[in-house]
Amino acid sequence: MNVVVVESPAKAKTINKYLGKDYTVLASYGHIRDLPSKDGSVKPDEDFAMDYQNDAKSAKHIKAIADALKDAENLYLATDPDREGEAIAWHVLKVMEEKKKLKSAKVSRVVFNEITKKAVLDGIANPRELDMNLVNAQQARRALDYLVGFTLSPVLWRKLPGAKSAGRVQSVALRLICERELEIESFVPEEYWTIDADFNTSDGDVVTARLTQLSGEKLEKFSLPSEDTAKAAGEKVRNGSFSVQSVTKKPAKRNPSPPFTTSTLQQEASRKLGFGAKRTMMAAQKLYEGFDIGGETTGLITYMRTDGVTLAGEAIHACREVIASEYGEKFVPKSPRQYKTKSKNAQEAHEAIRPTDMRRTPKMMAQYLDAEHLKLYELIWKRTIASQMESAQLERTTIDFADGAGQIMRATGSVVRFAGFLKLYEEGRDDSDDEKDGKRLPAVEEGDRMTTSEVREDQHFTEPAPRYTEASLVKKLEELGIGRPSTYASIISVLQDRDYVKLDQKRFIPEDKGQLVTAFLSSFFTRYVEYDFTAQLEERLDDISDAKVDWKQVLRDFWNDFNLSVEGTAELRVSDVLEELNKVLGPHIFPPREDGKDPRGCPKCDDGRLSLKTGRFGAFIGCSNYPDCRYTRQLGATEEEAEATQDDGPRILGIEPKSGLEISLRKGPYGPYLQLGEAEPKKKPKRVSIPKDIMIEDVDLEIALQLISLPREIGPHPETGSMITANLGRYGPYVECDKKYGKLSSGMEVLTVGMNRAVELLAASKTRGAGRAAPPLRVVGAHPDDGADINVKDGRYGPYVTHGGINATIPKGSDPMTITLEEAVKLLAERAEKTGKKPKKAKAAAKKKPAAKKKAPAKKTASKKSTAKD
Prior knowledge:
The chain is an alpha+beta fold and 870 residues long. It is globular, with a radius of gyration of 36 Å.
């Protein structure tokens, strides 16, 4: 019995048919194990040991493979032919070795570039060993991404509230989008004019030409900067008597583009089909795995993750046969076209993406494929066939018209003399070509007199570089050497999932969060978002694949510098970070004012200064005199737009469902508040003040409904059964039960506090009232050094962990009720190092007398007989 492991169940089903009953083909469903999503899974201090963990979802797949190996003679690891596939195969092997399921089975690695019967049988017949260079390159990439994510993201959470996370490659892609947006915002349009004229030939044809020389001087782009200069030039053209000065015809040749790689497929599918990168790869995956063609599942394209542009010899021969039969011999070049890959890594320069059988035309496949897969298949088929077709023969024509007084008008056009590959396919573009390109010009001779039918002075303004589309972003990433073919779709998806960018009319626009994250990383982690640095790191990963460098050395080189950079931000305060971002994003946040006043001066109060602030729902601009001055405006909003939101009139947030009354946000002499409905005779509407720690711009209908419904019932006390409520009072937010009160840390906590936290606060309040120290909110666990408890307590400045006389503040954004022992120990160690204090030694538990012994004198009733009998 032979066991074959592939990645997907669809592929397993197809390959099983090809191999027959002597083979059991099973799917791993991708990675069966990975690094757990918790800090410490990669250990730099232990030479980057990696703690892999079997995926819980893969348990049944692991069992199926293990069971099949009981009597197996061979285990063929037939996962995808790239780094990721090699790593998946290695993980399968390691898990089976740990479970001792291999016994005498021989392990072989099998690769095939397409799922056809011939390719699969050839792969099984020519196995090889696992390529550990490819495996280690994937491990290095995974470790780098993990270390950056788990090291940098907590820095973001602490120093830049509202930010979600940062990634090694995603952050660089985000920088591209954000920098382009800043370029657009700071771009100053420049005016220029052009002069066009329509000339009538003697045969009645019309030729449109543009003024290129004025009074004998060559016109540059900005030679006509205003309407006055344009009008003067236009008059000279109108008054001139033009004739044909010269007719120039030059032959030109256009060669076809190479067949698709992963990135060029994503770009072209975006431009021509409107498919996003993720959608393209999903459709391509299905085409690769196969469709039912004539009763047999057959893969229709080769492997779709590749940076190679070469075609197999038989594929080129098949292309030439199809071209001859479909378009004629004149469309077949004398010799096959050969394309060279740009990839520096020969081990991963696979064949280009192409149909597995060139004879399967899109017309033939229409009966087997749905619309989406047919469109993508047709695109791949046309590009592949066109790549082996004859060049297009063009003729570029230039006609100059002169008036003898120094004015020259020029018309240009291009005529296709032989279509060649253009008969089948032309590569798409993000921005349209010059409209005159491809225009056929009428036949004229030198000296022909021309009459002018119309002269036009047209105004133009320069435009900034356009925002990135998915296609242009992928192209730019590839040009810079950032990421690899298999990563582009996930990079784009992550940026959108984190709300760092949005796609508007197929163009990427950075959200406020994205701008802030980019500014933060560019300011404090400059090197790690530099394009050259990221590209060089990708080359180092390629070098690992090519056995040129040890993978652990690559990790060491990166981590030593990166860790120092992270440690350098430990003393940064949020206010320092925000002020630095104020400087970096200054042109974006504080554009110059028309009246010449300080752009950061508050328009509402006299001495307030505007600065960047962060709230629950992102960044905004606020006044330094808050809460006395509550002027705010959204990031990116103009002062005029902000003024509309600064009036003292009520702002309707929505309808309260139970009463059907409107909830409005209003401003009073003691600050902002919410009101339910309107005042009636002898009846005041319900009003609730907005806690000072809740920004006005954060108050939406959801929060308003919760605030207006206060007090909030949390639930019955587990000991007394009395109801515990949360509410806002004169001295701030609190919880209450049986006229006992516990102070909450923030207004927002009124809306979220749970039973455990409320009971602990009430108990702490009771013990404080008795003149005793408040008990801890929670015991985290025993400190590994001395076994003494690490406690979580609530202090004047928020929750903190304490041990041996050392107190360490719990970072904002971290839940004190869920902080782990490992996190607490780390916080205490950092605090001890900073202050130079050493934790006090814990007293031995054996020397501590039981508290019950000291209470003996108080128990006088114990001498009574009735009590003694009890």
